[in-house]
Structures are given as structure tokens and as C-alpha cells.
Specification:
By secondary structure, the protein is of the alpha+beta class.
Length: 119
């Protein structure tokens, strides 16, 4: 598979542009074999989550990136997963983000750019 790092970082930047908070792009290639990247962002509301999902889908359509299946909603819309195969995007409420601590679970992963600064 081709290197999708530029697209991954562009998706992280897209989330920041649209007010995603505390955006992290984690490189999992050296520690995982089912996806290459996690892109994680905190959202302020379910409406914000819907908007970010729409922007992600528009980006994917423009760049001929397939979304695998439909987005998965977890914990009563506190957490939404969008699976691109090579990347999994996690849109999470602040409460879900604090509870699940995905970055802590994936400590060996490294951030691929500076998008993990608060927005």
C-alpha cells in the first residue's frame, strides 16, 4: 500500500480547521497490522460531530478515498468511528476522550505532526 501519511496529516489539519479540539495523529505502522494511523479529535457537541463527519466525507470524496462501511456510533453518540482501512478516525466527546484515553493505550505510537496541540 502506498504511503498515506500526507492524506492522514491533511485529515488532521482538516479537523483542526473545523474546530476539532486536541487533534492527534498517531502512527501505528510499527506496532499494529490492521491499520496504519489513528486520527483522534474531541468534539464540542453531536452537531459538531455531524459537521466534522460531513467534512471528512467531502475530503474523502475529493481525494478518491474509500470509507469502509458506514460510520460507527459508540456510547450514545459520544464516540464515532470512521474507518478508511489505512486510518481510523475517532471523533469523541470530551467525556469519552477522557474515559477511554486512546493515546495512553497506544503509548508506543508516535505523533506524525504537530496537530496534537489544542485548537
Amino acid at each position: 500500500m502506498e504511503d498515506m501519511l500526507p492524506e492522514t496529516n491533511a485529515l488532521g489539519e482538516l479537523l483542526l480547521e473545523h474546530k476539532g479540539q486536541n487533534v492527534s495523529v498517531l502512527d501505528l505502522r510499527s506496532i499494529n497490522n490492521w491499520t496504519d494511523f489513528f486520527i483522534i479529535a474531541t468534539v464540542s457537541s453531536s452537531t459538531h460531530m455531524d459537521g466534522l463527519e460531513r467534512h471528512i466525507k467531502d475530503f474523502c470524496r475529493k481525494h478518491n478515498i474509500d470509507i469502509l462501511g458506514s460510520s460507527v456510533r459508540k456510547a450514545e453518540d459520544e464516540w464515532r468511528l470512521i474507518d478508511l482501512g489505512w486510518a481510523v478516525i475517532h471523533l469523541m466527546s470530551e467525556q469519552a476522550r477522557e474515559f477511554y484515553e486512546l493515546e495512553r493505550l497506544w503509548i508506543p505510537a508516535r505523533s506524525t505532526n504537530a496537530t496534537n496541540a489544542p485548537a
